[in-house]
Amino acid sequence: MITPTKKTAYINAVQGITRASAVYDRLKADILQGRFTADQKLKIEELSSFYETGASPLREALNRLSAEGLVSRSDQRGFNVAPLRWEELNTLTETRCFIEGRALEESITHRTEEWEDKLVLLIHKLSKKPRSSEANQHSANPEWELLHKEFHQTLLENAPSRWIKEFSETLGTESYRYRQVAASKNFGERDHHAEHVGIFEAAISGDIDLAKKLLFEHYRKTSALTGRGARSLKLMK
């Protein structure tokens, strides 16, 4: 029998988990969107006030983000946003191409009608959403970003190995951080939708070599433009 005391404790525990998850989601999104800059100190008191929550949910969220590599932690410095190592941008991009190339090959090999239908719907939705919330300058559109992430994840979802998909997601998240920092410098210089359509058409037609080629070109172009933007901001040589 569940006593009132045990029931209250259970409800409090569930609410605590819910609060921690909500703070984690918001803090992760803010780090990825650049609200907190690379290597910025994350003070518990300031974050508690900003997110209107207690210290315990924040520490739990920060520890989760530390495990994911988005936050660094040390006994002396506390929590900081993980640094961006611009000299590693090309290596990150080529590693992503290597891992996702294998995942895409396996995913296309195991393609299904349901998977193709899902990609058709995502391409259609992406065509209806502008990448930027503003017409004359870059301002990240959260709806487009979510669809964009889902599109790239769906391309790989038939790959049997969860390890390769999880590593692909980690590499994608890291790439996103770099891209967001320099996005304002590359506004309007490419047709993202045309690139996505090309990858999509090759994938659902079963043309593995072409799909991989177009995916790699897509990532390398992003990396080149991001690097150029970072140099204009004097973030890298």
- Which stretches are low in confidence, meaning pLDDT under 50 for 5 or more residues running? 1-16
* CATH level 3 topology of the largest domain: Four Helix Bundle (Hemerythrin (Met), subunit A)
| Shape, per Cα inertia axes | globular
Termini separation (Å)?
A: 67 Å
Count the DSSP helices.
9
Q: How many domains is the backbone divided into?
A: 2
Which structural class best describes the helix and strand composition? Answer: mainly alpha
What this model shows, in words?
- The protein folds into 2 domains: 4-81, Winged helix-like DNA-binding domain superfamily/Winged helix DNA-binding domain (Arc Repressor Mutant, subunit A); 86-232, Four Helix Bundle (Hemerythrin (Met), subunit A).
- It is 69% helix and 3% strand.
- It contains 9 helices and 2 strands.
- It has helices at 4-33, 44-51, 55-68, 89-109, 113-128, 142-156, 162-182, 192-204, 208-232, and strands spanning 71-74, 78-81.
- The protein has a two-stranded antiparallel ribbon with strand order 1-2.
Structural descriptors:
2 domains, 237 residues, two-stranded antiparallel ribbon, mainly alpha, globular, Four Helix Bundle (Hemerythrin (Met), subunit A), 9 helices, disordered N terminus
